[in-house]
């Protein structure tokens, strides 16, 4: 798969993406021995890239599952100086990693962190329909009609109706049993999708946690903890991202 030259440079630690664009425009970058000054240039793993006549080093891919706590930004940095997910990896991971997709500031749970740009693209592109499972504490108890709407698709606005989802009641909550813990599996990645879906059926989300992302389960990871993926998990993740079933399901 091809990637933009400035993105590859940024991932290799040469400079930020914007600074890499300036290096390209001012003639400091060569691809396969030829100076490149066009920002739209794309490259593959087979291409040889030099900056100021020095070959760039491409990092080996790394993959981590992180349990994002509440009140943490899903970003590499934040202009307001709020805590980001990458703050939890400082001084422990040397690669230029970043989160795959986003979780809201007040949403907790499973987040993949990697330096694999190809995988990032495959997992976040809507056409690949990567499954994500959430547990949501909602106001009130959804009834059969609410379940039907969530399972077949809820109209969220004039331009968008949610795709069919898998939904079940985990348990009733509260001293009077008037709230519900719901589990919802979706295959979309739109902003605030789960919150909008429950809002549309009259049961606003009070708390939200993503328990599974692309088959990766939090298990015993506490908020703020992370772990590397094992070889089997990486293999299955890559197969899923390419639209293939994990081996045990073939």
Automatic annotation (TrEMBL):
Coiled coil stretches, renumbered: none
EC number(s) per entry: 5.4.99.-
InterPro entries in the record: PsdUridine_s_RsuA/RluB/E/F_cat, PsdUridine_synth_cat_dom_sf, PsdUridine_synth_RsuA/RluA, PsdUridine_synth_RsuA/RluB/E/F, PsdUridine_synth_RsuA/RluB_CS, RsuA_PseudoU_synthase, S4_RNA-bd, S4_RNA-bd_sf
Pfam families: PseudoU_synth_2 (PF00849), S4 (PF01479)
EC supergroup of this enzyme: isomerase
Keywords, comma-separated and alphabetical: Isomerase, RNA-binding
CC per GO annotation: cytosol
Recorded GO MF terms: RNA binding; rRNA pseudouridine synthase activity
Residue ranges annotated for the RNA-binding S4 domain, each copy included: 3-66
GO terms classed as biological process: enzyme-directed rRNA pseudouridine synthesis
Family to which this protein belongs: Belongs to the pseudouridine synthase RsuA family.
Protein name: Pseudouridine synthase
Organism classification: Bacteria, Bacillati, Bacillota, Bacilli, Lactobacillales
